[in-house]
Amino acid sequence: MALQSTISTKFLVISDTHNFEFDDSAETSHPLQLPVPTADVLLHCGDLTHCGGVSSFKRALKMLGSIDAELKLIIPGNHDLELDKHYWEAQTDYDGNPEDPEDHLLAVEAMTGPLAKDAGVTYLDEGTHSLTLRSGATFSIYVSPYTPAFCDWAFAYPHHEDRFNTPYQVAPGATSVATNPIPENVDIVMTHGPPKGILDGCAQGNAGCDNILQAIRRVKPMMHCFGHIHEGNGIKVVDWKRATGEAFGEGNAIQNPYPDPFVWKDGHGDRTLAVNAAIMTADNKPENAPWLISLDLPRSL
Fold it and tell me: What is the C-alpha end-to-end distance of the chain, expressed in Å?
């Protein structure tokens, strides 16, 4: 009997955990609690902490280590301060003295060293990565922790700078600074922030990035997952044949079936599953459930 060309693969997608820790109390009522459904791949879209801190990164690893998944792929977000080397080197304390550069090294060591290995966590740098699961399922994923500049947070870029498209692919008015543009035919994109107009609504309006939207519209991945805008939690099927600046919408009409998976059968084509997986609400309470997404991935040859 011939093997099927695709393999059903479960992705547990979370973001913006902001120092979240599992509570063993019987009174716990938030949706992210143990036992978490087993997944093939855990994707964390950034903001592991409130404001960085090496001890906070270590606690985040302990939390992630409690989740059962073969692969645990992690990126930082704008709140994970010490992990951004250039940001951290520019910071000063209350007395105007430079922050200790060793804190950056300690944070990276925590996220890439023995503690991360014990937790099963793989910390991904910006760019494209190809992975194969024990089942034989294979996929490519592009990741980036960067978001448009807002106040004084880490992993920020000016709004006119485009990290995601080459000079031949940028929208009018944008300037490409991309050293790792999102490639064609990538299966999954994981960024910390959303694209403009897709699950990005907040009190300040649509806070997503025009340049990410330009890239996602160009690439049309199977799934684009992100967080950053807590109010935008949800999923949306984006039909690129129909989508316009106004057609992306604000709402999430798809009920989260967690702990059961949401099954997404579309491969590369004209539709992308957008997932805002922030577990924190606008007032920073862990009241949003994770998203368990089932994708059909190609079998490795």
Answer: 16
Query: Quick one: three-class SS letters along 151-202?
Result: CCCCCEECCCEECCCCCCCCCCCCEECCCCCCCCCCCEEEECCCECCCCCEE
| Non-local CB neighbours of 78 within 8 Å, separated by 6+ positions | 46, 47, 145, 147, 150, 153, 154, 155, 156, 192, 228
pLDDT in tens, 201-242: 887 888 899 999 999 999 999 999 999 999 999 999 999 987
CA-CA distance, 187 to 6, in Å (whole number)? 13
The pTM score is: 0.94
- Chain centroid to CA 248: how far? 20
Q: Is the pLDDT of residue 248 over 60?
A: no
